[in-house]
């Protein structure tokens, strides 16, 4: 077209020039030659022929131009360039194809992670409209390339404990459900509990109160010690937890190093119990420490199993315990001297003991004795002690009272109970209170001195197979063979032997077998 147009304009100029020359000839020769002259008629015929040829060429050129332009217009189509963060990745025929790709990709991610709210990342993806003559567009290739670049994130909620993120869950409802389930896990009464989103087993109250059967318990409070914060976040879908997994993360423990300062009433066993360790483990972490010289204020290196959250519960526990009968000994000259005879067996009484128990993550951290009530009196046991000699005198029976065991210290507070603890036996109870130690019942001192593990010890025989042991004394106020009345001073509370704090280790034994003192006091 461009070549044709140039030739046409050239021919027109030549024709114009010839027409001007013809006009000039006509003007100069009009007088000599008439229009009817043969030469003039030939000239006009020749000129007319050129005019018709030129006009035909113009018509043909116009027709070709119009047809060519229509063809080009018919083959010039719109399309879209696709960019990701300003980088050209290809072209597509219609930008609606992008919307279809985004919708399909969103569904793909949501189907893959049904427990989350997935959001497709389309930021940075832009298009630019363009037009071109027969452009080479491969929409399928561009969309495939873009499909491989598309990513998605999960919309979730962070669970922060003291400002530190410990878990990511789907939404605030899931976060609250996880926190409530974590608290209920340590509520009293072992049971299978099923919330709307998770099923789990509670930690029983009896499992953490020295294995004693509780008559009942009343939960006073349950809360999480740490500061809890919920915040919206973007996360990888693999990081989003359901309720059950979030509860596990919140409550699973890991050993963390801690420094413990020894306080009054502490023992190796009580410290070990508090931190979920054995006495051997405590000593292994503190090889430079000799127990008998550890004083209040000393620092011990320990490990403590810690979970991200600490669930603290306070409950009132009521227990029924047997109350052992008094033993009444009467002398009788009808029995040979040195012999005994039970003439009336005793009968256990029943008492109700109330405790306030504070636990952290199911472990007892404080236990306060609130009082007790005797609901059934014990029937005393009557024993005859023979005094018969070679010349028997008239029968005589004299009564001597052997009252029930009393607390060996005033203002007593039990810091460690009787029973098995982490696979080891604790044969008595640990007590703090007034430092003056008194005889729990009348009897005779059968040992006063040093004993391995217990330091300075006094053992009193009360007859009928019963003995009491007083350990970790700072000083002893009695001697071997000395007779004592109930309430007589035995010694002063101390921290000798395997002890890391001032307290009394008190035992009641029957025929050499340790008994739970709480059944007798």
Describe the protein's architecture and organization.
It is a single chain. By secondary structure, the protein is α+β, with helices and mostly antiparallel strands. Among the domains are: 1-18 and 51-73; 77-114 and 121-149, no CATH class; 157-249, no CATH class; 254-306, Membrane-bound Lytic Murein Transglycosylase D, Chain A (Roll), CATH 3.10.350. It is built from 8 helices and 32 strands. The chain has helices at 2-29, 38-74, 96-112, 139-149, 172-185, 243-251, 268-274, 279-285; strands at residues 76-84, 87-92, 117-121, 125-133, 151-161, 164-169, 192-194, 199-201, 216-224, 228-235, 240-241, 254-261, 299-306, 311-323, 327-336, 340-344, 349-360, 363-376, 381-388, 397-400, 413-416, 419-421, 424-426, 429-432, 436-438, 443-451, 455-463, 466-476, 483-484, 489-493, 504-510, 513-515. The strands form 8 sheets. Strands 21, 24, 25, 26, 27, 28, 29, 30, 31 and 32 form a 10-stranded antiparallel sheet that branches. Strands 3, 5, 6, 10 and 11 form a 5-stranded mixed sheet that branches. The radius of gyration is 53 Å and the shape is rod-shaped. Mean pLDDT is 79; it is low at 1-15, 27-36, 190-214 and 392-402.
């Amino acid at each position: 077209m461009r070549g044709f147009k140039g030739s046409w304009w050239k021919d027109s100029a030549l024709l114009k020039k010839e027409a001007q020359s013809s006009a000039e000839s006509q003007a100069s020769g009009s007088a000599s030659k008439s229009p009817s002259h043969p030469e003039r008629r030939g000239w006009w015929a020749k000129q007319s022929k050129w005019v018709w040829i030129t006009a035909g060429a113009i018509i043909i050129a116009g027709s070709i131009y119009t047809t060519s332009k229509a063809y080009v217009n018919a083959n010039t189509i719109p399309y879209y360039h696709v960019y990701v963060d300003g980088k050209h990745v290809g072209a597509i025929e219609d930008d609606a194809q992008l919307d279809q790709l985004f919708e399909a990709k969103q569904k793909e991610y949501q189907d893959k992670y049904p427990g989350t709210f997935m959001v497709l990342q389309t930021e940075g993806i832009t298009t630019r409209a363009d037009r071109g003559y027969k452009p080479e567009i491969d929409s399928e290739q561009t969309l495939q390339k873009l499909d491989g670049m598309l990513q998605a994130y999960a919309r979730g909620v962070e669970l922060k404990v003291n400002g530190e993120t410990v878990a990511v869950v789907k939404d605030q409802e899931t976060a609250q459900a996880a926190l409530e389930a974590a608290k209920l896990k340590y509520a009293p009464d072992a049971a299978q509990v099923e919330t709307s989103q998770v099923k789990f087993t509670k930690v029983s109250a009896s499992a953490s109160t020295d294995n004693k059967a509780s008559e009942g318990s009343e939960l006073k409070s349950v809360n999480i010690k740490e500061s809890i914060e919920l915040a919206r976040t973007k996360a990888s879908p693999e990081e989003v937890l359901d309720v059950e997994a979030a509860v596990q993360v919140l409550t699973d423990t890991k050993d963390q190093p801690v420094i413990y300062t020894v306080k009054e009433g502490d023992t190796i066993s009580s410290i070990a119990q508090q931190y979920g360790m054995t006495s051997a483990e405590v000593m292994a972490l503190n090889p430079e420490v000799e127990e008998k010289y550890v004083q209040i204020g000393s620092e011990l290196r320990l490990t403590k199993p810690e979970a991200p959250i600490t669930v603290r519960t306070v409950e009132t526990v009521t227990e029924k315990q047997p109350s052992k009968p008094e033993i009444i000994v009467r002398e009788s000259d009808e029995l040979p001297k040195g012999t005994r005879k039970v003439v009336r067996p005793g009968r256990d009484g029943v008492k109700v003991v109330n405790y306030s128990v504070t636990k952290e993550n199911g472990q007892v951290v404080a236990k306060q004795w609130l009082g007790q009530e005797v609901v059934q009196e014990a029937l005393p046991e009557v024993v005859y002690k023979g005094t018969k000699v070679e010349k028997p005198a008239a029968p005589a029976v004299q009564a001597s009272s052997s009252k029930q065991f009393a607390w060996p210290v005033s203002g007593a507070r039990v810091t460690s109970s009787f029973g098995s603890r982490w696979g080891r036996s604790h044969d008595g109870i640990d007590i703090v209170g007034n430092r003056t130690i008194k005889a729990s019942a009348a009897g005779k001192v059968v040992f006063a001195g040093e004993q391995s593990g217990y330091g300075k010890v006094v053992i009193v025989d009360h007859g009928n197979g019963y003995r009491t042991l007083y350990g970790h004394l700072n000083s002893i106020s009695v001697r071997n063979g000395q007779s004592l009345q109930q309430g007589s001073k035995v010694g002063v509370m101390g921290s000798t032997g395997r002890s890391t704090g001032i307290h009394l280790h008190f035992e009641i034994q029957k025929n050499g077998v340790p008994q739970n003192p709480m059944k007798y006091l």
